[in-house]
Amino acid sequence: MSRAELKKVVVVEKIISGHMTNAEGAALLGLTNRQVIRLKKKYLTEGGATALVHRNRGRKPVHALTDETKERVAALYSQQYVGSNNCHFAELLAERDMLVLSPSSVRRILLVKGMKKVKQRRRKKAHQPRERRSQAGALWQIDATPYAWLEDRAPAFSLHAAIDDATGIVVGAVFRPTECREGYSLVMQQGIKKYGIPLGLYSDRHTIFRSPNETLTVEQELAGDTKPLSDFGKAMDELCITHIKAMTPQAKGRIERLWGTLQDRLVIELRLLGINTMEEANEALPALLRKHNRKFAVKPKSDESAYIKLDSSMRLAYVFTTREKRTLGQGNSLSYANKLYTFAKPALHRFDAKTVVEVRQTLTGEIVVWHDGEAIELVEIEKPIRKPKQHMKKASSALQRKPASMHPWKTTKQQNQDKRTTTKSDFQDALYSQYNSYAEALW
């Protein structure tokens, strides 16, 4: 018997012996008077204390899972769904194998089979949660994360994605080999084409989003200079999107938590689809995002949308570009990326020489001149062939010549040397003669 059943036996026996009333026994057991009377009757007519034991003790419940079902669940997990969490595993069983089980049921099965261990839950740090924006499109959060999305079937690559802060909808995503401006540009184009232009964008402080020289000196501020922008920042400025650069990961926690969800679920989904390359993963990504949004998206506080409709005259391909200044030469030609270009329709576009224009290169490699909100098409032309400079041959130094033995220079030199020798000898003789005369006088 359990402790609760033993308590019932003691209380019922006291009531039968007259030491306690039905009301007092009902108060002790937390039952009504009618339930106490039934227990007393069962005790008297069905054999005493054993009558108060639960009738299902030792019997298998009718709704219990069969051993075959448990074995099948364990086999499916080890063969196909290894690594999935309990909730995702239960969803996959219902979706692909027609087995409707609760997450707690599959958890118990895997624990008994030794396929999972009980996780030790750590105490969470206290962070003041930031409320979601009230309207869809008020703020997007954008980021990228490198991960082994295809496990050992391919090298690791980066997933770029943007999420709406108010609804939790992943508005765009794309796989790229590394974190890059092209990946972020494709994500923004996907979201803007499908939903509209958001009011704000939250990102980290990667140099893709900001210029490394954005801090101005006091002299520059007094001169009225503005902060330089990266190519991505210029695109945000052109679309009038307020770009906020977070100082900490917690500031953009919505997208940081998204990575944990996708790294847990997306890896399993890609494995089940038999995807082995990044290109195949990009083809399957839209359908997987729709499935994710159906499950995790929430309704915003306000039904009114904050999205701004994209103007039909604006082409996003010419917004998300690299931008550089070039000076036009004679014939409206310009040099870019070590190639020479000119206008495809020179009759429609004519500029003075030395005019500074903005050259934009799209994600597809198209190069145009951007002027007054219009893209001017360029064509590549051949560079003029310049004749190489002719180098004048320098005269070589003349060979050293030795004069002949009877050359006047040598004769004069020898005569001077003989003269100097003779003069020296005469001087020595005169000096000795004077010394001898002086010595004789002393003696």
From TrEMBL:
Stretches assigned to the Integrase catalytic domain: 125-317
Gene Ontology molecular functions: nucleic acid binding
Region (Disordered) location: 387-425
Gene3D superfamilies noted in UniProt: Ribonuclease H-like superfamily/Ribonuclease H
InterPro entries cross-referenced by the UniProt entry: Homeodomain-like_sf (IPR009057), InsJ-like_HTH (IPR055247), Integrase_cat-core (IPR001584), ISNCY_transpos (IPR047797), RNaseH-like_sf (IPR012337), RNaseH_sf (IPR036397)
Record PROSITE patterns: INTEGRASE
Basic and acidic residues bias: start-end ranges: 416-425
GO terms under biological process: DNA integration
Name of the protein in question: ISNCY family transposase
Taxonomic path: Bacteria, Bacillati, Bacillota, Bacilli, Bacillales
